[in-house]
């Protein structure tokens, strides 16, 4: 089981194991806001398993865009869908091929399925008569929240409603 960690300002900070969350609660560094139905058993203690905890001290997080995109970041930004045909994507493609002067920035990389990647090769979209289904750009701020928040646990939902707005 994973536990949502909220910063002192109630914004999502990370997702940790329930064991790590229990240690933070027992040491007085966090408070439990929601619990899972299954308790944590130890030889001397029976403790509810935390689903959401709130840190007592505010943790300052540097919120800046990453300098270089990654394969994982591109696939996540594009929802793992091919920018050309819309099917499931597993690779990344340069819209303007590197051989034609294209760079490896957020605005030139898109998620792509294998067949489209092979067909495109080092050709431009104009040569193929293709168009992009998305406009590639640096991802918005909320994309840097923990990836587990893409499919959140049901107990986390009341704490995430205002965070993603």
From TrEMBL:
<keyword id="KW-0378">Hydrolase</keyword>
<keyword id="KW-0540">Nuclease</keyword>
<dbReference type="Pfam" id="PF14279">
    <property type="entry name" value="HNH_5"/>
</dbReference>
<keyword id="KW-0255">Endonuclease</keyword>
<dbReference type="InterPro" id="IPR052892">
    <property type="entry name" value="NA-targeting_endonuclease"/>
</dbReference>
<protein>
    <submittedName>
        <fullName>HNH endonuclease</fullName>
    </submittedName>
</protein>
<dbReference type="GO" id="GO:0004519">
    <property type="term" value="F:endonuclease activity"/>
</dbReference>
<feature type="domain" description="HNH nuclease">
    <location>
        <begin position="69"/>
        <end position="118"/>
    </location>
</feature>
<dbReference type="InterPro" id="IPR003615">
    <property type="entry name" value="HNH_nuc"/>
</dbReference>
<dbReference type="InterPro" id="IPR029471">
    <property type="entry name" value="HNH_5"/>
</dbReference>
